[in-house]
Amino acid sequence: MDGPMAQQTVSRCLQEVTTALNAPHILRKHIRFPQNRNERNLIKQKFYDKYGLPAVVGCIDCSHVAIVRPSEHEERYFNRKHFHLINTQVICDSDLLITNVDASYGGATHDAYIWRECEIRNHLEGLQDETVYLLGDSGYALREHMMTPVDNAVENSPEGRYNYLQKRVRCTIERTFGVLKGRWRCLLAARELHYCPETAGKIILACCVLHNMCIRAGIEGPELTEEEHQSERTRQVPFETAASSTQALQAGRRARNSLIQMLERNRR
């Protein structure tokens, strides 16, 4: 039947599709962090072939998805820029596939806290006799498995060259957010999801599942315009340098120094 569709019908369809895409077996099938060495090696090789940085299994960051003011626990979702949001953590691979997503935290929660509570962190820390890195910005604490930029690095020094490469590779997560939000524009920070936080989180997960389906099928998504990119950057809260325990920080520095030395040897 031609003609406009009633709002109730649209809402019912949205709920049914979102619920279906949030089914545990669907999420496990389409959003999956590499669970064994062979799977990790495939991702590492793709990152290395594209960028020349070894042992990288993903890039990580958080992005804000605005929501209407929740009726309960408003303080959990209100951020420093004075709007309500879901602070969504995403890990991606070099092909822009989302391998992990957490859309359960509000805008008052720091990126580093979400990562500390993430099961992937425990998974990586439990790996034996294998070098693996996630790449994050300075909002994350430097760890053996989390490579962050070197503060105040001198340009064209080994540390400066590492920072340049680390940032170049880490742009993969920014591109992932750009494609995800360009395709599913309800996630743009300048817009609002008019749902409670739990439903908004499910919509975010559903969009991530569909994003991965499109990436695997080779369906190109629309890019955000420069104006839209600028709007996203304006709405995102600048990161704060994460606090770090001394012992874990020292282990992270040793791992990062070893990586920098390896990159320098490979230049010769």
* Alpha-beta classification: alpha/beta
Number of extended strands? 5
Helix content: 40-55%
**Total helical segments:** 9
**Percent of sequence in beta strands:** 5-15%
CA distance, first residue to last residue: 69 Å
Mean pLDDT: 92
Low-confidence stretches: none
Chain oligomer state: single chain
Radius of gyration: 19 Å
State the shape.
globular
| Biggest β-sheet strands, sense, barrel | 5 strands, mixed
Structure description:
The chain has about 270 residues and is α/β, with parallel strands linked by helices. It is about 50% helix and about 10% strand. The protein is built from nine helices and five strands; from the N terminus they run αααβββααββαααα. A five-stranded mixed β-sheet has the order 3-2-1-4-5. A hairpin with a 5-residue loop joins β2 and β3 (about 100). α1 packs across α7. The longest helix is centred in the middle third of the chain and has 26 residues, at about 160-185. The chain is globular, with a radius of gyration of 19 Å. GO terms for molecular function: hydrolase activity; metal ion binding; nuclease activity. It is found in: Nucleus.
